[in-house]
Design brief:
Elements: E1 22-26, E2 29-33, E3 43-47, H1 58-79, E4 83-89, E5 95-101, H2 108-113, H3 122-134
Bound molecules: zinc ion (ZN).
Length: 135
């Protein structure tokens, strides 16, 4: 829903991610530690422009997939997950979510209390991934 007098961009969670969570910036994309992580190390890759999937050019999509591939390699080297889930939010602002997975990572706390303990804050793991991304 669009509110009259308010620029839509200000309501977009991907346009308003904190710079403290920024891991890297490349090829017109921001690579962030996600502020509501499903798991430790959860990364989100978003174009700097507020665009949907259908508004991305093929070249921009290719750049995104290269960054997703690099995120996989970075997360594997830092966290050694047993698997990785990659999810896509297509609209209104396209976002690629890369989530490390481990066996048993959906605990009773999540099931009963809808909360999940994460060993590092997103700001802490952003710093760890920033160093790994550069190497
Ligand atoms: Zn946006």
């Amino acid at each position: 829903m669009k509110i009259p007098g308010v620029e839509y961009k200000t309501l977009c969670r991907y346009c308003s991610l904190s710079n403290e969570l920024l891991i890297a910036e490349e090829s017109g994309y921001g690579i962030y530690a996600y502020d509501e992580p499903f798991n430790n190390g959860h990364i989100v890759i978003v174009p700097r422009r507020h665009v949907s999937l259908s508004e991305l050019s093929v070249e921009e999509l290719y750049k995104a997939l290269r960054l997703v591939k690099r995120a996989e390699a970075t997360l594997r080297s830092v966290y050694h997950p047993q698997g990785l889930n990659i999810g896509l939010v297509a609209y209104p602002h396209v976002a690629f979510h890369i989530v490390p997975r481990w066996g048993g990572d959906v605990s009773f706390i999540k099931v009963f209390f809808n909360a999940k303990p994460i060993p590092e804050t997103p700001i802490q793991y952003a710093e760890r991934l920033r160093r790994a991304w550069r190497s």
